[in-house]
Amino acid sequence: MTKQEMRTDATKKAILKFAEEEFSEKGLYGCRVDEIARKANVNKALIYRHFGNKESLYKEVLVRVYTRLGDLEEQVINLQTDYELKLKDLVHIYFQFLYDNPSFVRMVMWENLHGAKSFKERGVAETKNPILHELGRIIQEARLRSGVPESIDSDQLILTLIACSFNYFSNMNTLNIIVGKDLMLAENREKRIQATTEMLLAYLKARQ
């Protein structure tokens, strides 16, 4: 890679970094390219040269945050062999990912507010998601080892995992007030992980 290519790459990374901050905080329509340019210390015209327009930059950021799910693959493939322990570890990994990636949570919230338009256009839904892939494998293992019937609705298990984990972080501010606790504290997150795991296992075992 030449020096010019290295500078271009560094510039694009800086733009994406600050674009992620702005889009996750303000959404596509509230974000201003001028502010991204100011934070990245680049000329606004350079952003348009690299990414075309604000909508294209937003979609690039959306793909960027979703691609981080793929980074969990190495953790997922090294899980326990017992399906119950594997499920517990999987829930913990997903909770930790959401905790470590608040911009992911906010970007998904913005997409839902706008009908998942960019989510569909860029095919983000097809982005590798090792969490859901491994959950499918856990269901298969439960069927083989514990007699969980084929009729079990795997979609409901997936929806329950998402509802119990993603919604925990996306609704954090109001939930803190409702329960009168700081749910971001490690001890409270751990309680939620335990409750979510027990709920998922109960769903599987109730159908044995």
Based on the model shown, name its key terms.
208 residues, 2 domains, mainly alpha, Tetracycline Repressor, domain 2, 0% strand, 12 helices, Arc Repressor Mutant, subunit A
What does it look like?
The chain is mainly α and 208 residues long. It is 77% helix and 0% strand. It contains 12 helices and no strands. Helix 1 (3-30) packs antiparallel against helix 2 (33-40), helix 1 crosses helix 4 (54-67) and helix 6 (83-100) runs antiparallel to helix 9 (130-146). The chain is elongated, with a radius of gyration of 20 Å.
List the SSEs and their pairings.
Elements: H1 3-30, H2 33-40, H3 44-51, H4 54-67, H5 73-77, H6 83-100, H7 102-113, H8 117-121, H9 130-146, H10 154-170, H11 172-179, H12 186-205
Helix pairs in contact: 1-2, 1-4, 1-7, 6-9, 6-10, 6-12, 10-12
Summary, kept brief:
Keywords: DNA-binding. The chain has helices spanning 3-30, 33-40, 44-51, 54-67, 73-77, 83-100, 102-113, 117-121, 130-146, 154-170, 172-179, 186-205. The chain has 208 residues and is mainly alpha-helical.
Helix content: over 70%
CATH domain class of the largest domain = Mainly Alpha
CATH topology of the largest domain: Tetracycline Repressor, domain 2
CATH structural architecture of the largest domain: Orthogonal Bundle
Shape verdict: elongated
Structural class: mainly alpha
- Termini gap: 58 Å
Report the portion of residues in β strands: under 5%
Q: Which stretches are poorly predicted, pLDDT < 50 over at least 5 residues?
A: none
- Count the beta strands: 0
Domain unit count: 2
Radius of gyration: 20 Å
Question: What is the overall pLDDT average?
Answer: 89
> What's the order of the H and E elements?
HHHHHHHHHHHH
Protein name: HTH-type transcriptional repressor NicS
Keywords: DNA-binding
Organism: bioreactor metagenome
Domain HTH tetR-type: 9-69
